[in-house]
Structure formats: C-alpha cells, structure tokens
Amino acid sequence: MIWYLLYPFRGTSEAPVLGPAHPFRVAFTRYGRYAARHVVTTLLISVLVAAILVYPFPFLYSTDFANGASNLPHHVWTDARPLEDKPGIEADVMMRSIWVHGSYMQALQKDILFGALELQDELLGPTANFSPSLAPGNVEPPNSTSGKLDHDLTPGQRDIFHVVNGLTNQSWFFHSPLQYWSCSADEIARDDDIVGTVNAKKSQPTSVNVTLRHSIVFSGKRFEDRQLVAADALVITLIHLRDSPVGRMWEQRVKALTDKMASKWQVYTADEASNKKGQLYEFQFRPMSLQDGLALGIAYLLTMTYCLVSLSKLRAVKSKIGLMVTVVVQICLSMTSSFTICAIFKIDLSKIPSFSYPIAIFSLSLENVFRLINAVILTPPEDNTSSRIGHAFGETAHICLAGVAQNLLVLFTLSKIVSPGVSAFCTFAAIAIVVDFFYLSTFFLAVLSVDVRRTELSDALAKASLRRSRRASSDPQTRQKSWLDSILQGKIALSTRIAGTIVTVGFVLIAQWHFFENESVMRILSRILHVFPKYKDLSTSRSSLLVDVHQARSPKSWLRLQDHETAREVIHVIKPDAHSYIARVFHPLVFVLKGSDRMPATKERILPPAVYDFARHHSIHFGMTMLVIVAAVRLLMNYLLWDELAETTGMNGKDVPLLTVRTLEIGHALDVALLSASSDGHVVSVGLDRLVRVWDVKSGGASYVLTENDESSTIAFPILAMCIDDESHWLALLTSDKILVWNLNERRWAPTVRIDANRQKPEAFLFFHDPSTTIAPLLLVRREGVMIEINVDQGTSNRFNLADESAIVSIGSLVNKDSTKIMASTREGRTYMISKMESNWNATIVDLPRVREREYLSTIALPGLACFLVIHAQSVDLIDSHSQKVVRSFETDPIQPKTFRCFHSRPRRLESGSIGVRTLTFAYLNAYTRDLVVQMYSSQYEGESLCVCGPEQPQPKTCHHWESAKETRRRINDPGVWEALPSRILVGVRRKRLGKSPPLTNPIYHRHQPHIADNNSALRRRRQGGSGGGGGTQVSQQQQQHQQQNEQQRQQPPQKQGDWEVWMFSQHGKQETWETVSLCPDAEDARHLYVTSLGPMVRIGRSSIAVGFSNVIKVLVVGQERFEPETDDLHLGDGVPVVSSRRRKGAYGARNNNSTINSNNNNNGNNSNSSNRPPVPAIR
Predict the structure, then answer these.
(1) Residues with Cβ within 8 Å of residue 836, at least 6 apart in sequence
(2) Closest to 1121 measured CA to CA, from 536, 437, 662, 796
(3) CB 2: neighbour CB atoms within 10 A?
(4) pLDDT at 448 over 50
C-alpha cells in the first residue's frame, strides 16, 4: 500500500526493483535457488515446523476457560472494558467484593475457608445452605425510608430481594467459592479433599444459574493437568442493582467489619477517591448478527472468487487444483500455528468471532502468493526450475518483506487506538503475517518449484506469461492524468498489494465499531486522536497499600480475564433481552490472615499451565510423532517426486546450467549432411556414408538404420530432401526418382511413390493436411516453378506449373487443418500466393510496395498469426494471408539472404476478432558486418498487445497498431551458425575467440574443399588434425587459389575440438539472458572426426536443437525440454523443414575471425545470393 501512497511523489505505483547485484536480491535469489533445488529438505523443514506448532493446538485450547488452557474464540463479540465516568452513563449493576488471602498460594487451606465463611456471614448474614427461593412469604419487608434498618436485615428480609424471586431495582445475588460446600462449616470440616471438591464442582450452578467457575471465585490460580491445584485468594462477589437494600447493608457492614476483624485479619481498603467511587466497566456478549454473517460470507466469497479466477488464468487443470490446495493448506497452517503461538504467550483471542480470523490471513497471504506466482510466470521459460524460482523469489522477497513490515506497522498503530479485544486480533494478524511469510518461503516455494518442473504447469506458465495483459485506454494522451483518474481507469491496478491491507484494516475498524456502535463518527475519530478516550488503560498502577501483599493477580487483571460465558449468564440474569451491561465495580476489600507468609516461594511460570502439562505428559508422543511425520513426508516425496529428485540432486548442489550439450552415439562413419527433426524428439540424419539413421532423443538417444524394403541394402542415394509430418508419424525421403515414406511409430514402409527423375534439390518438400487421406499428402516445389502434389495412399502425383517465366527462389508454407497456403517468390521479384481450391491449386500475384525490378525476395510463414513475411534487402513486409494485403512494413539493416528468422509471443484472440501479440522479433545477419541483429517490436505500454491488422481496420481497446510500437535492436558479434527457437530464444554455435593469436584457418574455404577420391586418406588426415574432406563434389577456382595456404595451415598445431562454443540469447521484457557453454566438454574424444566447419542445424522440440558435428550429432538443450507435440502457432515457418549444411554454412563462415571479415565480405555476399549461384548439388 505504501507504493500507492507514494505515487504522487514517485510517479509510479510499482514497487522498486532491486538491481541484480544488490545484496538483498542476491541473498534472496540464492536462497530461492537452494530451496527449489533441495525440495525435500525445504519441505521437511516446513512440515516439521508446522507439526511442532500445529500438534499442541488441541492441548492448548479448550472451551472451558477455568482449566488452565486458552479459550477458543466463539461466534460472539465479547469484551470487558473500563468506561469513563461521564454524565449520562448509568450503571446497570454494582459489583462489590472481598478477597481473602492466607499464605502465598495457600487460599484453599481450611483455616482460610473458615475465615472467609465468617467474613461472608458478617457481610451478608447467615448463608449456610443458602436457598433464597425458599424464603417465607409472610416476612415483613424492611422500612425502605430508614437507612439504618438496612444494617439489620433479617435473613428472610434479605432473601426476598434476591433476584431469583423476581428482577427489580432492589435485586441482588452473590458468588462465593464457599458455595461449593453450600456455605456450611460442617461440610468444609468433613471434606478431606478440598482441591478435589473444587475441581469436581467447577461447573456447579448457583441459584440464578450462574456457573461457579474457578475464574470468578478464585484469584491467582495454579493449574496442573488442567486441574486447579492452588489459589492465592478467595473471591466473594456481591452483584446488586442500584436500590438494593442488600447493597447498602454490605456497604455499612464493611465499615464496621474493618475494625471488628482487625485482630485476626490485616485489612486493605482503597486509598484513592476514584477507587472508592468505583470504576465503570462494560461487559459484552453479542452474538453475530445476520448482517455480520452476510458481510463475512460476502468477504469470503469475493476472496475465494478472486483466488479461483487468478489461478484459472494459469490454464492448467492439475496444477490449478494443486496450487489451490497448496494455498489453502498454507493458510490453514499459518492460522493454526498463529493460534498456538498466541496460546503460548497468553493472548486472549476470545473477544472476536472465530470466523473472522481466517479472512485476515487469507487476504494477506494471497498478496505474497500471487506476487510470487506472477514473478515465476514472467521469468524466461527456458531457464531451469531452480533458476526461475530463485530469480522470482529474489525479485519479490524484498517486496514481501516490505509488505510484512508495512502491515506490522499498521497493525501496531491500530492496536494502540482500539479496544483490547481488537488489539488482540491485531496481534494475531501480525503473528500470522510473519508465520505465513515463513511458510511461503519454505512450504509454498518448494511446492511451486515442483509444479513448475511438472509438464502441465511448466507449459501453463509459459502460456500465461504470454497471455497476461492489462486493460488500458486506447488514447495514449489520456495516460498522464491524476492518480485517482488512473485508478478509476485501471492504469493503476488495485491489486493484492493493497487489497490485503485494506481488508485487514477494514475488518479492524468494523470490529471496533461493534464494540462502540453507539458512538457517533466524530466521537470515534476524536477518541482515535486521544481527545475523548472512552476507556482507560487496564495497566494502571495498583493501590500502594497492596504492594506488600504480593498478590498473584491484581483485581483489575482478574477482572479482565473473566470468562465471557460468565458475562453471558450475568446478562441473562439482570438484562435478559440485552447483549451487554454496565457495572460499577468497586475496589475489593482485601483481607490477609495475620501471620501469613506472602512472599512467593517460587517464581510464577511465564507460560500458561497447559504448555507445561503438554511438555510433561506428551513429550514422548510428540517426539515420536515428529519422527513419523518426517519419515512419512520423506517417503512420500521420494515416491511422488522420484524423477524430479533425480533431476535436482544430480548436480551435487551446483547450479544447473541453462545450456546443456548432449552428444549422441556415433552413428555415421562420415560427416552428417542432412538433418530433420520432429517436436516429439525424433531426429533423422543422413550421412556421407550413405546411411539414413533415425534417432529417438526423448527416450535416451537410441537409433536404428533405415534400409529399403526391410532388406539389408541401404536406401538408394542421392537423398535430396526429407520431412516429418506435424504429428510425428511419417517420415518422407525424396530421392531423384521416388519418394519413400516411413512410419516412425510402427517402423514400416508405406507404398513407394514414383516421380519424374530430377537430381536438383527442391525449394520445398513438406506434408500438408487432407482429412480424406490416411497418410498426409506431400507437396514438392521445384526451383523451375513446378509444384507436385503426391498422394501417398494412392501412389499418384499431380503436377502444377506455378511460374513458367522464372525460377522459384523462396517458399513459405502456411499449413493447418483448415487450409494450406504457400507464398513463393521468383527471381524476377514477383510474389505468388498459392492456395488449394478443391482439387486444383490457385496462384495469385501479391502486390507489394517498393519492389525493385529483379529484386531478390524471400518469404517466411507465421502460422500463429496467419501471415507471411516477405523479406526485401532492407525491409520486411507483414502480409495477411486472407486479404493478401500488407499489414505493416518494417525497416531493417541490410539483410543477408537466407538468414532471416522471426518469432513472436503467443498470439491471443481479441474481442474484435483480431489477433494480438505482445512482441514480434526479427533475427538476421547484417549483409555487410555479418553481425546477428535481433530486432524486437513491442507496445510502448507494458502488458499491452500489438494488433495484427491493417491501419484502416478499427483498433481494439486492448491492442495498438504498429505505428505506436517500440523498436529495440541488439547485435551479437560473431554469431556463427544459429537458429531461433519457438520459446523466443536464439541459439548458436561458433568458434571460441582466440584472443591475440592469429587465426589458424578460415572456415569459409574449408567448406569448399574438393571431395577427394581417397576418402580413407582424407579421414586419416582429419583424425590427425588435418582439415581435408568436406562433402562437396566440385572444386572452385577460389579453392585452388588457397590450396597452398591450406597445406601450410595443416602443418600448424591443430585446434582442439573444445574450441567450439554454444551461445544462447533470450530477451523477455526487461530481462536479457546470455550464456555460453563449450560444445565439446570432452575435447580429447578421439572418436570425433576433426571438424573444420559445422554441419546442418535443425530444431527438435521447443527448446532443443540438433547440429551435425562432423560424424556425430550434438543436441543443444536450453532449460528443460519435454519433447511434446506442438500446436500450429509454435512453428517458426522456416520454409524448407530440412536445413542442409550447404544451405546454412554461408551464415557462419564470414565471421569466424575478426581478421578475415573484410577480405571475405564480397565472396560471402556472392555465394549467398541464390540468383547468381549454381544449383546446389545433391548428396551422392
């Protein structure tokens, strides 16, 4: 709440963000990472503390206030508070009492009982076998006009005024511990077990049905095993109405009794005028009204609704239920633990209804819970779980602590200006806040880390992090308004950061209003400002004459601890239809038996008796229960989290790296030349050794070799292209004259489809959706402008001409269950939109602005946005696939052809029907510097979306046109070979920089080395550190010019395999992540062929990439990879699903070493231009 109060000064309601190097953030991040990594340890600590605080709860609380345990709160408002004696306040009853003391804590001795009975009879007359309802009806009433006659009331005259005979202004009744023995000296004398009698008759009612509880007839009680074992004083109390003759008789006889008993008793009377006059007290016992129940019900309903709605946004069924249960369990543990702590420290919580306590901790707990969940949602999903939890906890822990400190300060302030009952509630809420933060930092943090690690919540957090947006005004000029206007318009969300504090403070004020409901608003406000205090402090100093008595309980403290059930019974006697009464309480007359030792023999125990009883009788059971709970939780966690435990404990306490490199078993004798992969973890590799191998990365990297027609013969080469369908069921291999289709699940061949012989590599080869076929049909687009549709089920193919006048240079495919659209660009700079119309394919020309003659264009499909991107030399056009109109044109740096990639945040459907994204990112190589440019577009206002629609279309309120988008650019030097992941991460592989040492080789030349006929000789040289053997079949003139230089370089010391490194770059909001790791941790592995340049690179799942590294395959994983089928909106639209080494190497070789950039710029630019280079030869 403090951030909202500071909004006019700070200009923002957001909490301050600590820098990454701040010591607080570093400490909290380190703790969060440790707690997430050691889930079982963290859970065991939290469960053990919870068990320690929850187990004693039933032993420390009881519904009987007289047995040494704390009293449980009920469904009533109760209070006993002093009032200021002002005109207009009339007392309903008068309360007079005497306290009889012997030696310290020896009031239950028989001589004290006999002395108290004598004093009682002197004050009230004979009380043996007291039964006022049997008073004779012919007793003559006293003369009320003569005050002297009150001193000489006969027992019969006294009894007719008793309240049991009718409630009048002259009624009276009394409480006395001697009533346990019917006020009979003979019964006291015959009783050999005084303490046993006192405990046996503690629930005995008087003649007016007021229970003789220990709390009203004894003072300074000592309990053991919930039984009274000693008392310091016997309390005899007279309660009478204003005109009662018995009250006047008591007052007159007290004066005479002081002198009469001076020889036996030391008498202490009030020495202050205010004490002689008496003090007004108000006793309440107010049941919850219908309005109270409805208000609490609405509060709980709103809180639960908010909790459910917030959790439902996570879009995970199992985890949503699990998190809800976790939140409820945490709140229950916090509340029960707080009750136990309050019982230990003698905090009376019985003044406020029990239903009110959970609402405060519930609202305050939700603040921290959802703040932590939201922080986890905003962390990069590619990070490992411990890093995400640690980062989120480091970002939010200081805000949580500031909120805890703020609420503690607010509650402390309120506790000083409210009634004692409400002050106890403030104390409970303060304790609950601290305890809840502990459970948040242990129990909830551990459970959340497990849920994040699980598939359903991990995916849901990634989805929710991209779907979250805040409603905002469509007019940017209206954003600079007042604080109130911003709140009303939703610019400053009244989130749980202020809701919990408002709920708690509001309830405190409502509770205070219940105790002072008859006051005016001005009186309440003035009393808060200490102008008109309504009640006095109960801690006022006791009479100076009683200091030497060493009372175990002072009279005012004794009065404050009276049980509310007694107040209810007294209210029922004197005001049957009311919920409270005002009593004028006079200072008690204290009698101390002369010769008594009033010095305490032992120090009074600090904790309540129930705590010592628990420690004495339940210690062994408690210890055994703790051991069983810890063992049970440990076994349960080992059973439920066996896979997570293996994952988290495998790092031996070290940080789990974000980037991991895994090397598959060697499956090829020569270089890997082609790769294809599916989202479920299947990787298909084609090597120069003429082997086609299928890998299952998800199951551990097992592989098998494909042979044609289940024979031992290998598949006929060359293999020009291959692809896998979206469901990861079928693999298609394209050779020069046929298409082979392999079932990845059943491991069988489908019928072979013959096609026209052609040894050129196609521009596109992919599956598309057709519900009428068992096996999805294939599309083959050749460079000469021919498209072939292959029906695998029927074994047929249909030929269509797309562009007769020109060669196809780029293809982008948009394939989904509803339609299939292809965008193709030609060498002359024309762009075609190709869509299927029934059994035919229709091609239309797309009108693009600013197209130069014979401009090289390339296309990329964005399935999630139903759009295409047309890449120019220095600009990009976003084209809607339905209207074929340009949505937006983006200016870029000079783009190196065939290097452009695009990814975006998860799209969401807006109310207007348009599609919105929070971010759209381009990644490409600069054509001149060969730097990797990361160009991101996002809304100027945090949390809002950019609408994928034309400027002429209406703009939704929660979405903005691209004109208002914010552009940010990042550059990565020396990127090497790289790829973009759907999780908005860039991953690349490059040579490590060698500092000032001269470059040993230039990879651009090695990739064009001639294919030497003597393969064995070349391979031997590679194993010895040479650089021969490439995979090409022709020798260029440029290669011959550098042959002598390469021979000299072979004589130099060879570079190690460990000179390659993997890098990743991620940008999520304001957070950027950069990490590198060695590609070859085992650099001395002799099984690897020597690598001069990388092979093909292809994306496997959402966070994994496979790259050919000579004759092995390296799998690069960012964070955690689940290898699950992806939806259409996760495809990147690479064009050709298979990425070959020749297609992509041009992106790398230009920038391996700084010293070779200038000399190779022109060569690279020429080699990368598809319009000038010859067709890429097929693999043979």
Answers:
(1) 819, 820, 842
(2) 662
(3) 16
(4) yes
- Assigned CATH topology for domain 2-67+313-525: Multidrug efflux transporter AcrB transmembrane fold (1.20.1640)
Task: Report pLDDT digits (tens) over 932-975.
Answer: 999 998 888 766 788 887 656 666 666 777 887 889 899 999 99
Contact between 1163 and 1038 under an 8 Å Cβ cutoff? The reply is yes
Residue type for position 623: G
Which of 927, 849, 926, 853 shows the shortest CA–CA distance to 890?
A: 849
CA-to-CA distance for 394 and 348, rounded, in angstroms? 37
Predicted confidence at residue 672, as pLDDT, reads 92
Q: What's the token pair of residue 605? A: 């125990």
CB 353 within 8 A of CB 297: no
Any idea which architecture 659-1000+1055-1167 has in CATH? 7 Propeller (2.130)
Asked if residue 75 lies in contact with residue 354, where contact means CB atoms within 8 angstroms, the answer is: yes
Angle between helices 39-54 and 642-649 (to 10 degrees): 120
**Which residues are paired to 977 by β-bridges?**
989
Do residues 422 and 328 make contact, with C-beta atoms less than 8 angstroms apart? no
One-letter-per-residue 3-state SS of 688-719: CCCCEEEEECCCCCEEEECEHHHCCCECCCCE
Give Cβ neighbours of residue 585 (< 8 Å, ≥ 6 apart). Answer: 95, 278, 279, 280, 281, 559
671, 1031 contact by CB (below 8 A)? yes
Judge whether 2-67+313-525 and 659-1000+1055-1167 match in fold.
no
Residue 826: C-alpha distances to residues 711, 809, 830, 1170 (Å):
42, 5, 5, 11
Tokens representing residue 289 in the block: 């009204």
Rounded Cα distance, 744 and 765, in Å:
18
Q: In whole angstroms, give the CA distance from residue 1145 to residue 1147.
A: 5
Q: Where are any strands of DSSP class E within 58-135? A: 61-62, 70-71, 76-83, 93-101
- Distance in angstroms between the alpha carbons of the first and the last residue of the chain: 71
Report the 3 state secondary structure along 1021-1050: HHHCCCCCCCCCCCCCHHHHHCHHHHHHHH
Alpha-carbon separation of residue 49 from 472, 631, 633, 911 (angstroms) = 45, 14, 13, 49
- Per-residue pLDDT tens digits for 322-376: 778 888 889 889 989 999 999 898 888 888 887 778 877 777 787 788 888 888 8
Q: What is the pTM of this model?
A: 0.66
Rounded Cα distance, 4 and 276, in Å: 52
Could you tell me the two tokens for 22? 């701040």
The number of angstroms, rounded, from the C-alpha of 975 to the middle of its chain's C-alpha atoms is 37
Q: Is the alpha carbon torsion for 326, 441, 436, 295 positive or negative? A: negative
Task: Quote the tokens at residue 834.
Answer: 């190709």
**Domain spans of the chain?**
2-67+313-525, 77-129+147-286+543-612, 659-1000+1055-1167
Query: Of 1125, 859, 771, 769, which Cα lies nearest the Cα of 779?
Result: 769
Alpha helices in 93-147 (DSSP H): 110-124
Q: Higher model confidence: residue 1170 or residue 416?
A: 416
Which of these, 40, 9, 931, lies nearest to 449 by C-alpha position? 40
pLDDT value, residue 1058: 59
